[in-house]
Amino acid sequence: MDFLGENVIYAVLLLVGAWLLSYIAIRLQFILPLVILKEMPLKEARRKSLTMTDKKFIHYFIRILFLAIVCFGVKYLLLFIFYFIQLGLDGMGNPIPLIGGIINLSLVQVIIFIGGAWTALLLLSFLIKEAGIVEEFDSEEYFMEYKARPLLHKFNILVLGVMAFSLFLFNILFLNGLLDSNPKVISHRGVDSLSNPNGVQNTIPSLIKTSKLKPDYIEIDVQETKDNQFVMMHDNHLDNLAGVSGTPQDYTLAQLKKMKVSENDMEAPLASFDDYLKTANNLNQKLLIEIKTTKRDSDKFMDNFIKQYKDNLISNKHQIQSLDFDVITKVKKLEPRIPVSYIMPYNLVYPNTNADMYTMEETTLNDSFVIKSLLLGKEVYAWTVNTSNAMDKVMFMNVDGIISDEVSMLQDELETFHKNPKYADRIIYYISVMPD
């Protein structure tokens, strides 16, 4: 949303694309009912659907939109009623909150299931009626046929019983946080707190201060210099932090170390990776090292980096991550013992890579991605998670690490999350995330 707000043209194109897809969908909405129920040839069904919806796009758009609003409105009204009931129960003495939580979460699951089936049934009925398809269905004859098959009846009862017991067991474990993981706390760019920062990003003074908070990792950014050395810098250009023109690739490491970087009314020397790494090792602070690549990097960038630092990184349990998939491939080829994470800004498709981990931007991260990664033995880090709601969301997903500018807030949120789980919060999470 921040990106769309800053790039209005993309927001406009997205809206136009959505409107175009809606137009195509509505014009072709009767094809499947005609093909399946009337056994009409595809070309004839397409032609008839276009004829039936000719000059009626707005008419059908409004009707379908109204149907969606009613279905989702009723569904989520009921869901939030259970949520608010649980809010009240959470203030009572044990075991009422847990019993209420199990009942309310079970009702939420039933509503979600019935709501989806109800919406699909109403939409199908609407399409069948509008297409003029009338199918006779003798419900009494169907019921008598089913009743005459006692084995099938008993099997269905058994399946429903197993499903109900499994759901009951899941709800107990889920509400009590017994399915939760304990994610790593990772400081983004080595600082803490956007509102009250403790230093300049990627500098040694902020590293020293932030390490006192005992994060599991400090995430940093490394770029190559003109003389093929390595410097601590996130931005491609130096003017934002160092106040000079050009990029790190325009200067030697000696020249860069003479510069000062400033941020949030604070100033610190621009650090070499060697000095930063040495300080981190002395502090026993593990690093998540993001390799920032540019078109001006030397061909031997990663070869030099791995050759120079591989033993240090392995012995001190540091990790590497990058947006550049070539970096991931090179690290796994040169030194597979170094854990490496592939950074993904958007959750579009699940990647097939040899990375050990994935670092996913939190707004598009979902539980499906986390579950797939778990099954494949790959860890998932969420970034950049800076609000309590977002922290709760990714914690409920059981991510393996959380990258945040708000380390202190994240540590407090984790303590509350594990020591005092609120059943209402877990129910609202299930409503907003799990059904997806």
Structure description:
By secondary structure, the protein is of the alpha/beta class. 54% of the residues lie in helices and 12% in strands. The protein contains 17 helices and 11 strands. It has helices spanning 2-6, 8-27, 31-37, 42-52, 57-89, 96-130, 139-147, 150-175, 204-211, 253-257, 273-282, 301-315, 325-334, 367-375, 388-396, 407-419, 423-432, and strands at residues 184-188, 217-224, 230-232, 260-263, 266-269, 287-291, 319-322, 340-344, 357-361, 379-383, 401-404. Strands 1-2-6-7-8-9-10-11 form an 8-stranded parallel β-barrel, surrounded by 7 helices.
The largest sheet is: 8 strands, parallel, barrel
C-alpha geometry: globular
Multimerization status: single chain
Please state roughly what percent of the residues sit in beta strands, choosing from under 5%, 5-15%, 15-25%, 25-35%, 35-45% or over 45%.
Answer: 5-15%
Instruction: Please tally the helical runs, counting DSSP H or I stretches of 4 or more residues.
Output: 17
The termini sit apart by 20 Å
Total E-strand runs: 11
Query: What order do the helices and strands follow?
Result: HHHHHHHHEHEEHEEHEHEHEEHEHEHH
The average pLDDT value, as a whole number, equals 90
Provide the structure class: alpha/beta
**Residue ranges: pLDDT <50 for 5 or more in a row?**
none
User: What's the alpha carbon Rg, rounded to whole Å?
Assistant: 28 Å
Question: Which features does this protein show?
Answer:
globular, single chain, 436 residues, two-stranded antiparallel ribbon, 17 helices, alpha/beta
